[in-house]
Amino acid sequence: MAYKIVVSGAAETGHCSPGALELAKEVGREIIKQGGILVTGATSGIPYWAAIGAKEAAGTVIGLSPAASEIAHIKTYKLPTDYHDLIIYTGFDYAGRNLLLTRCADAVITVCGRMGTLNEFTIAFEDKKPIGVLIGSGGTADMVRDIVKKSHRGMGKIVYSSNPRQLVKKLLKLVEKEKNNIRC
Asked: Which fold has domain 4-183?
């Protein structure tokens, strides 16, 4: 069974590092190339670019929307519907969507990010999910290591890399290790 990997990141990317959108696209492609399924918050910015990359690699992309319907997704939230094979309309606004998004995944990758990305990161951290952080993409991703260290809660199940291919590879190894521990 393919692993479901969430790409979490800034919907508004003006503060991300130069090239962050291309990095997000590469992360999406690598998730598919390495046998995964991409899951996003069905939003713009980093997750959207990851979806573009995943579709370029002929992969499956599932989105979880904060809206209760397709009409609300488009008209109220002003979010895209393209580059996704399936969008689930949660009706739980952003905070509820973030909880479902991280809980439905086998792992979460943080690329750039703002407060919502930090929320998704902390949910995944508290749930002891494997997490990958794309260093050098800006925003939350570049602050995470320091936040984790200063939070005095342990280092979590986190891998870091500035290379999308290596990040996905390291994260999938961690996911597989976690799955093997469950089976034992």
From this structure: Rossmann fold (3.40.50)
Please report, in angstroms and rounded to a whole number, the separation of the first and last CA atoms in the chain: 18
CA 165/CA 151 separation, integer angstroms = 29
- Cα atoms in the Cβ-side hemisphere of radius 13 Å centred on 27: 39
Every domain of the chain and the residues it spans: 4-183
What b-and-e string marks burial along 25-39, b requiring 16 or more CB atoms within 10 Å of the CB?
bbbbbbbbbbebbbb
Whole-angstrom Cα distance, residue 113 to residue 115? 7
* H or E segment to which residue 125 belongs: helix 115-126
pLDDT of residue 181: 79
* pLDDT for the residue numbered 128: 96
Summarised one tens digit per residue, pLDDT across range 90-114 is 999 999 999 999 999 999 999 999 9
